[in-house]
Amino acid sequence: MRKRFLQLIACIIITAPFVSAGSDENITTNLQEEVQQLRRRTEALELRLSSISAGTPTVTSGRAGSTYMNVSFDTCIDAGWSTDSDPAKELQLGDHDPQQRGFSLRNAEIALDGAVDPYMKGFANIVYKLDTQNETELELEEAYLLTTSLPGDLQLKAGQFFSEFGRQNSQHPHTWAFADQPLVLNRMFGSEGLRNVGARLSWLVPTPFYTELLLGVFNGEGGNSFSFRDTATDGCHGRTPVDRNLHGPGDLLYVPRLCSSFDLTDQQTLLLGVSGALGPNDSGTDSRTQIYGADIYWKWKSAHADAGFPFVSWQTEALYRNYEAGADPENQLPSETLMDWGLYSQILWGFTTRWVAGLRGDFATGNDGLFDSQDIYRGDRTRISPNLTWYPSEFSKIRLQYNQDHGARFGNEESVWLQAEFLLGSHAAHKF
Amino acid sequence: MQHTSSKKTKYILEGNIMKLLTIIFIAALLPVISRGELNIVATTPEYGAIAAEIGGDHVQVTTLAKPTEDSHFVDAKPSFIAKLHRADVIIEGGAELETGWLPSLLEGARNPKLDTGKPGHVICAEGISLLDIPASLDRSKGDIHAAGNPHFMTDPVNGKIVAEHICRTFCELDSKSADFYRENLAKFNKRIDSKLIEWQKLFEQHKGKRIVAYHNSWPYFAQRFGVRIDLFLEPKPGIPPTPANLASVQSGMKTQGVRVIIVEPYQNRKTAENVAQATGAAIVDVAQYPGGVKGTEGGYIELIDYLVKSIAKALSEKADK
Fold it and tell me: Is the ipTM of this complex over 0.90?
């Protein structure tokens, strides 16, 4: 009985297709059509599936997307010794330089940045510093907007910010390759660099290589516009400062800059720039200052770079200042033109992963004034600074630097500075 | 006097700058020739290779990172700004891979076509199921990625998702050539599908085997081919090898019979060689990017083919001994 049943089933299975389809040819075409139809449907489904999944970001990145802004906190701690008992007096004039024997903390910086809306980004740097009496100083170092969608390849920056004069002036202290500010920048722009409230328009020039043309316009007044209308700081002209107001657009501080970059080879990049800073100064009622600068930055980086190492870079900036000083009968100083210039040149060698050896040479001169012997910002100065930096990770560094200083006013001094840095949070990407 | 000096400044500024602008503007117009093809910039070479495969001669592809360098630390060279300024499409990996250098480039490039959310900005990580998403963001654990491990292209199936994504972008931006792009995508997918069977077969006998890597950039490859790449010469991601960690890796290799170490072009091969010598292991030179090691210049599929074959070969050779 069971056997007969199986036979019947087998018979049905074998004959069934013939019954329903008729002939061999028909079956094949039907099956082919069906397979093709199925394939088309599967493909359509696959396409739809991948479009659905591709359109849905799985997880957004912590740095770029999960918050409305990047927040970071960066601190540089200095420790060291100098043959000068009071380095802050005239040896280390930069505001973020190590300032005394023992410990200094001159840069604890809160940095905020993010997209404001589809039209602009916003940036802020708030810096805390401890003075020699361990009192906290606070400064709004930068607070500016940057447009993201201006037509004509233009970009506008507005607010308080470091002017884009040369290379180092616009860099924050924690990105510097040395523990202190180059002498020439200090001499031309004072302890803080050229940083003022104003606006800057930049045009990305459509050349085949990178070229950017910038024009900054600033008030040029107060403590961070040293060679201009800075009545707050003594220095560089010996006169009693004259408090000048703006009488027209010509009294603003103008900072034009042109820079270009070329890839010399696949592993070598050159960046060249020329800058100017032109505006009235506070030594007289109609005296003006012109500062011109040229900068060059060259970098070689291995094609097999691990964490960006090994590399060699060379950076040099030269600045010249033409300072029309007004007459000051009270101090027995005539009207005269003071000419200062200086340069620094530094070479960095990232000889192995996370280690950088650096050497910087500084020179600054300006000794044609009658008041020079009393002015810490005049007279010849040179400095040689070798250093060694170790980056335990990309969020920290430990640096040892030796400075050999020579100054017409103070003779020879030697200093050793140890600098440690830590960075918390997420920080905006750095420029080249 | 006040009046003349401000006039003088104005003259210096306007006169010289205008002259300069005119010269630059004329120079700028010379090289601008419309070619009618999509100008693609890819951050890393595997995306560039896939873009070239999908786009064929209808696109022009430029890759920023070198195949032999660490893609987390690419310099934001100004020349890249000029390239991005002229681009129609930027293809980036995303998941924080380029976070240290791409944002400042895009900021400088002022190219509205590449704004986030526009079709011209392709983020390949979108649509990929990322692995190693950290439960907490703690840098004492080394260099972690909040979004997950960004080295997902070592799995060829992810390569297909990315190719689809790129194809869709090309079709949207250049609809006239959409059929051409789709045809290329179909060819690409077909090649991967048939290769995938071959690749899986090569790993069949190695299921569950362990491999040592320098850095944790291979979890996607491991998952796809059923091996474990979970011993690392680095003690924590991004932290250089320490003697203590190397010793513990070596003892782990000996007790578990792990005999293969993979090293990427920018990693310290000497460290790996020392470990290999101490444990009798073989070193396989691998790369995540086409052109990173010899024999992978052909493209993305050629790269995966090389990875699969060289790693499987080393596993077989070491298993025989």
Answer: no
Q: What is the mean pLDDT of residues A248-254?
A: 95
pLDDT digits (tens, 9 = 90+) for B4-52: 445 555 555 556 656 666 666 555 554 444 456 999 999 999 999 999 9
Is the domain spanning B38-193 CATH 3.30.565.10? The answer is: no
Mean residue pLDDT of chain B comes to 91
Token pair for A324: 């029309």
Residue B203: count other Cβ atoms within 10 Å of its Cβ. Answer: 17
Q: Cα B223–B229–B231 angle (5° rounding)?
A: 150
| Residue in chain A lying closest to B125 (CA) | A57
Query: Looking at the structure, do residues A147 and A38 belong to the same domain, yes or no?
Result: no
Query: Residues B40, B64: contact at Cβ < 8 Å?
Result: no
Instruction: Give the model confidence (pLDDT) of B125-154 as tens digits.
Output: 999 999 999 988 899 998 888 899 999 999
Largest CA distance in chain A: 135
Cα gap B75→B81, rounded to integer Å:
11
Q: A136 Cβ partners below 8 Å, 6+ apart?
A: A128, A129, A130
Asked if A285 lies within 8 A of B2 by C-beta distance, the reply is: yes
Domain that holds residue A12: 2-55
Count of helix runs (H) and strand runs (E) in chain B: 10, 8
Contacts of B81 in chain A (CB under 8 A): 204, 210
Q: What is the pLDDT of residues A99-155, one digit of tens each?
A: 999 999 999 999 999 999 999 999 999 999 999 999 999 999 999 999 999 999 999
* Burial class of A188 by CB neighbour count within 10 A (0 to 12, 13 to 18, 19+): buried
Distance CA A211, CA A208 (A): 9
Q: Which of B29, B28, B52 is nearest to B40 (CA)?
A: B52
Are both B38-193 and B203-320 of the same fold? Answer: yes
The answer to whether B123 contacts A57, with C-beta atoms less than 8 Å apart, is yes
Q: B127, A150: Cβ pair inside 8 Å?
A: no
One domain, residues A176 and A227: yes
Helices (H), strands (E): how many in chain A?
A: 4, 16
Q: Render A286-317 in DSSP notation, one character per residue.
A: S-EEEEEEEEEEEEEEEEEEETTEEEEEEEEE
Same-domain pairing of A18 and A87: no
Number of domains in chain A: 2
CATH of the domain at A384: 2.40.160.10
Mean pLDDT of B73-85: 96
Residue A88 and residue B274: Cα distance in Å, rounded?
A: 50
Give the separation between CA A196 and CA B37, rounded to whole angstroms: 45
Which pLDDT tens digit goes with each residue over B171-199? 999 999 999 999 999 999 999 999 999 99
For residue A64, tell me if it sits in a domain.
no
pLDDT at A4: 62
Contact residues, chain B, for A269 at CB < 8 Å: 75, 77-79
Residue B6 CA to residue A424 CA, distance in Å, equals 46
Query: Chain B contacts of A50, Cβ < 8 Å?
Result: 127, 161, 164-165
Count other C-beta atoms under 10 Å from residue A354's C-beta: 18
A377 closest CA partner among A334, A301, A310, A325: A325
Question: Could you tell me the fold of the domain covering B203-320?
Answer: Rossmann fold (3.40.50)
pLDDT given at position A27: 76
Give the amino acid at A265. Answer: T
More confident position, A64 or A371: A371
Q: Could you identify the residue written with the tokens 């998952």?
A: B223
Same domain, A155 and A299: yes
Which of B76, B161, B239 minimises the CB distance to A50? B161
Domain borders along chain B are: 38-193, 203-320
Q: Which of A120, A105, A1 shows the shortest CA–CA distance to A419?
A: A105
Residue A88 has pLDDT above 80, yes or no: yes
The answer to whether A293 and B55 are in contact (CB under 8 A) is no
